[in-house]
Design a protein that fits this description.
With about 500 residues, the protein is mostly helical. It is about 65% helix and about 0% strand. The protein has a two-stranded antiparallel ribbon with strand order 1-4. The protein has a two-stranded antiparallel sheet with strand order 2-3. It is found in: Membrane.
C-alpha cells in the first residue's frame, strides 16, 4: 500500500515541474521579413534590433540581405513596435511563451500563469484537507485524481491564454489535494516507526519525476506533446480504487468501527498476522466518546495547536521558498545545459530522501530539520561567494547540490513532522493548512529572480536567510519522538496531542 500510494506523487510532480521547460525563457528576436530570408539571424538582430527585440528599426525601401551583410544598407533612427517574434529552440522547443508571444509588454503574463497555479495550491491545501477529513481520504484521493487527469488532457485543447490560466488554477487546487490525501492515508495505515518510513517513501517519486520530465522534454520539445505524455500515466492510477482501503484511523475517528475492523482483518490475513481476540474491544476503546464533533479550521487555533500552527506556518513558508526557489529557478541560474543541471540536482535528492529515514528514526525531528535548513542556507551563500571568485559552473553546481541535498531532506521530514503534530480528526486539514503558507511562498517564487534588478546576489541571499530563520522556528515546536514515547494515557480533547498520543492510546 505504501508503494501504491507513493505512485500518486508522480502525476502531481509532473504538473508542478512542467513549467521548468514549458515556460522557460529563451532568446527571441523580431521576425525576419520574407524579403530578407537569406540573411543570418545574428546579422538581422545586429542591424534591426540594437537595443532589444521589442522594437525593430524601420527598414528603408529597397533594402536587401546583401546590403546588410556588406554594411552598405542605410540605417534609419526610427523604430516601431515589433508584432511577431521568433524564438531560439536549440535547447527548449515550443513553449507557452512562443505560442502566445509572452514577451515584451506581455512578459508579465508568464509569471501570472504560475502564480495562478500556486494560488490554487494554497487554497487546495486547506479546502482539500477539510474535505478529506470530513468525507474520507480514499474518496477525495480518487475523486481529485480523476479531475486531475481530466484537466491535464483538457489543457491540450486550450487555444487561448486565458483558458490556459483557468485550467492551471484548478490544476493547482486539485494536485495538492491528491498528493496530501495520498500522504496522510499512507501514514495512517501504519504505526510506530513505520509512520516515518511510509511517510518518507511517499516522496521517493519526486526526484524520479524530475528526471522523467527532464528526459521527456528532450524527446518531446513541443509543450503540448510533453503535457500529453506526462498526463496519460496518471489515468492508470484510477484502477487503484478497487485496491486501496480507506484509512482505518479515520473510520474509527468517525465511529465506523465495523468498516475499520474489516480493513484490519483483511490486512492481517494478507500479512499472515494473528488477529487479536479482543479486537472488537480494542476498537470500541478507540471509538471517540462523541461523534458530534466535526473537523473545523478553528480547531487549528485552539489550545496547544495555536502555537504549533503559527510556527509551522513560518517554517513551511521558509522551506518552500528554499526548496522550490532552487528547483523551479534552475533556468535562471544559467548553469549550462538546463536538462543536465536539472537531472543532476534531481539525482542528488534521492540519497537525501533515503538518509532521512535513519535520521528521523534516531535523531528525532527538530534538530535534523534545523540542521538541514541551516546547511541549505550556508550552501546558497557559498555559491554566491564562489561565483564572485571563480568562473566555473561546476563549482556553483556543487554548492547547489549540497543545498538541494539538505533542503530535499527537509522537504521529506517536514510533512511527517506536521502530520505527527495534529490529531486524526484534523490531520489532513492541518497538513493541508500548511499549504497556505507554502502557497504564499510559491506565489513569491516566480518573482524571486526579479530581485536581481536590485542586486544579482539578492535572490540566493534571500533563500539563505529564510532557510536559516525557518530552521530556527522549528526549534520552538515539541519533538514528536518524545511525545510518542510517552506512556501516559491521554484524556484530552481530540484537538490536542500528537499523532501517537491521539491515535494509539489503546496501546
Amino acid at each position: 500500500m505504501t508503494f501504491l500510494l507513493a505512485m500518486f506523487s508522480f502525476p502531481c510532480t509532473f504538473h508542478i515541474y512542467l513549467p521548468t521547460f514549458t515556460v522557460k525563457s529563451t532568446k527571441f528576436w523580431c521576425r525576419l521579413p520574407d524579403n530578407l530570408a537569406g540573411l543570418p539571424i545574428q546579422d538581422w538582430i545586429n542591424y534591426s534590433q540594437p537595443v532589444d527585440a521589442c522594437y525593430v528599426r524601420v527598414l528603408p525601401d529597397g533594402i536587401t540581405a546583401e546590403s546588410i551583410l556588406n554594411h552598405t544598407a542605410p540605417i534609419l533612427d526610427s523604430f516601431q513596435k515589433c508584432q511577431q517574434w521568433d524564438f531560439d529552440r536549440s535547447e527548449i522547443g515550443d513553449t507557452i511563451i512562443s505560442e502566445w508571444n509572452l514577451v515584451c509588454d506581455r512578459s508579465g503574463l508568464t509569471n501570472l500563469a504560475e502564480v495562478v497555479f500556486l494560488i490554487g495550491v494554497g487554497f487546495g491545501g486547506v479546502i482539500g484537507g477539510w474535505i478529506s477529513d470530513k468525507f474520507g481520504r480514499k474518496r477525495i484521493l480518487m475523486g481529485m485524481l480523476c479531475l486531475q487527469c481530466t484537466l491535464a488532457i483538457l489543457s491540450l485543447f486550450v487555444r487561448s491564454y486565458v483558458h490556459y490560466i483557468i485550467v492551471r488554477l484548478i490544476m493547482g487546487f486539485v494536485s495538492v489535494s491528491v498528493v496530501y490525501a495520498a500522504f496522510v492515508l499512507s501514514v495512517e495505515l501504519v504505526s510506530g516507526k513505520w509512520v516515518t518510513i511510509a511517510g518518507v517513501c511517499n516522496f521517493f517519486p519526486l526526484p524520479l519525476a524530475y528526471i522523467i520530465v527532464s528526459l521527456l522534454s528532450l524527446l518531446l520539445p513541443n509543450w503540448r506533446d510533453l503535457q500529453l505524455a506526462l498526463s496519460l500515466p496518471g489515468c492508470l492510477l484510477l484502477i487503484l480504487w478497487f485496491v486501496l482501503p480507506e484509512s482505518p484511523r479515520w473510520l474509527i475517528g468517525r465511529g465506523r468501527t465495523q468498516e475499520a475492523k474489516e480493513i484490519i482483518v483483511k490486512a492481517a490475513k494478507f500479512n499472515r498476522r494473528e488477529i487479536p481476540e479482543e479486537l472488537d474491544k480494542m476498537l470500541m476503546m478507540s471509538k471517540p466518546e462523541t461523534e458530534a464533533e466535526q473537523p473545523s479550521v478553528l480547531m487549528l487555533f485552539k489550545g496547544v495547536l495555536l502555537m504549533r500552527t503559527f510556527c509551522l506556518f513560518l517554517a513551511w513558508f521558509s522551506m518552500t521558498i528554499a526548496y522550490y526557489g532552487l528547483l523551479l529557478n534552475i533556468g535562471n541560474l544559467n548553469l549550462g545545459n538546463l536538462h543536465v543541471t536539472s537531472i543532476i540536482l534531481a539525482v542528488v535528492e534521492i540519497p537525501a530522501i533515503a538518509v532521512s529515514i535513519p535520521i528521523l528514526l534516531k535523531a528525532g525531528r527538530k534538530i535534523p530539520i534545523f540542521i538541514s535548513m541551516l546547511v541549505c542556507g550556508l550552501a546558497c551563500v557559498a555559491s554566491e561567494l564562489f561565483s564572485m571568485s571563480f568562473d566555473d559552473d561546476w563549482i556553483l553546481i556543487a554548492c547547489l547540490m549540497v543545498g538541494k541535498f539538505a533542503i530535499g531532506s527537509t522537504n521529506m521530514m517536514m510533512p511527517i513532522f506536521t502530520a505527527e503534530l495534529y490529531p486524526t480528526l484534523i490531520r489532513n486539514l492541518g497538513v493541508g493548512a500548511s499549504q497556505v503558507s507554502a502557497g504564499l511562498a510559491l506565489i513569491c517564487i516566480p518573482y524571486l529572480w526579479e530581485l536581481t534588478a536590485l542586486n544579482e546576489h539578492l535572490p540566493m541571499v534571500t533563500i539563505a536567510a529564510l532557510s536559516a530563520v525557518g530552521g530556527g522556528i522549528v526549534l520552538l515546536l515539541p519533538n514528536t519522538t518524545s511525545i510518542n514515547d510517552s506512556k501516559k494515557p491521554n484524556n484530552s480533547s481530540p484537538c490536542n496531542g500528537a499523532f501517537t498520543i491521539s491515535d494509539d492510546k489503546v496501546h
